[in-house]
Amino acid sequence: MSVPRHTAAAAVLSLTAMYLTCALPGAVRDVAAGVPIVRPFTRPATRPVSEPVPATVSPQAAELLKRISAAYSSLKSLELAGNISFAIVEQGTARRHEARFTSAFAAPNRFRHEIPGEQLFGSTGRKVYAWSEHNNAYIETDCPPGRFVLKELPADHAQALPAQNPSLVLAISRDPEAELRRWASDISVASDSAPGQPALRVVAADRSSVATVFLDPQSWLIRRVVADYKLLFASMGRDDISSAVLAIDYTLIRTDAPLADDAFEWSPPPGARELAAVSGEQNRDQQSPLTGRPAPDFALKDLDGRVVRLADLRGSVVLLDFWATWCPPCRASMPGIAALHKEKSPAGLKVFAVNLREDRGKIAQFLRENKLDLPVLMDEDGAAAGAYGITAIPATVLIGKDGVVRTVIVGFEPSMKQTLSRVVEELMK
Q1: Domain assignments of the chain as residue spans, ordered by start
Q2: Which CATH architecture has domain 299-427?
């Protein structure tokens, strides 16, 4: 499922399906490969969020929406636990990412959602916060009074919670039915809905994914979500992905049980660094703090072991594309970056794909298999990405001839190459 910032970067219960890979890899663990150090991000942050088109809702589905909204609105408390899984078949190879979560809600505005070892989102009723265990960084801002809607939360909440825990989002919301309608272009009763087994078919607002939402017939709360994201990857040019299915299964649904007074309290752990919180109403990545500042210097090895120093490139326009082979939107963006390198390097553009923490052999194999001719630098310890504040990938940084950062774009969409071309042409004048 997708929603409107970083990364990451989810269908039925999301604002747009363009953020699926932004939220998921930060939320789920690839048991075989381990946890990525940053989250993949799909959509460029510079693209404004458009006004949603009202969803088409069938009469039968409208009745279910009213039941759902009434059930969530009447909750005094809610305890949830469940599993998130993302199964993908890429070039005939099947992979599965999995994670477990726990959460709780107490009316009107306290909540907690945790994926152990990964992320923590919550509200004490006074403050809304999010904390990442990977980099021990957090955001914290004032909590809206009473129940609120998703867009009033910080962007990290608005991005991740619908993808990971849609039931909690509806419990938090002061208007669950309107929230559901905003996330969809079409809502109808699912074809596999049966007496005693109600289910909705939800087409994402941008029509890039379709989800089935299974409801508990006694509580009218969500008990399972299955979303097909093949269309999303196809829109990114990923025809090699034949299947991509997200499933959220609730293993615990407990309503209106007493909760401990301190169940929602939280304070930053020792050494945690605070990041600026961005409102979910605002454009996803606003302007990077780096924009208009001197680009942090680095000395990184290329695939042949030669050291490239940014300081030596002064006088040239430089494009840095932070990426990793495990990141689907990164792989989707690479052909465009390579094409830009081919077209503009004769005129002086310096293009480098800065790979995060992967070994030389894996990178070289990826370039061969995908027939990509592109200079690669290896950020073996992630220090360069840290200096540039990279928390989601792909992230593309354009540096002017004077060594000043001019543009930062986080994410990918099919028109990205054209966008970069225009900016590069302007900088090279």
Answers
A1: 17-274, 299-427
A2: 3-Layer(aba) Sandwich (3.40)
- Distance (Å, whole) CA 367 – CA 351: 15
Q: Which token pair is 138?
A: 């957090």
Q: What's the CATH fold of domain 17-274?
A: outer membrane lipoprotein receptor (LolB), chain A (2.50.20)
Q: What is the DSSP letter of 403?
A: S
- The pTM score is 0.64
Higher pLDDT, 279 or 359: 359
Q: How far apart are CA 212 and CA 198, in angstroms?
A: 10
Quick: pLDDT tens for 242-274: 898 989 999 999 999 999 988 999 999 898 877
> Are the C-beta atoms of residues 216 and 223 closer than 8 Å to each other?
yes
Residue 427 has pLDDT above 60, yes or no: yes
> CA 88 to CA 233: how far, in whole Å?
11
User: Does residue 192 carry a pLDDT above 70?
Assistant: yes
- The one-letter code for the residue type at 216 is D
Tokens for 256, please give them.
């209106």
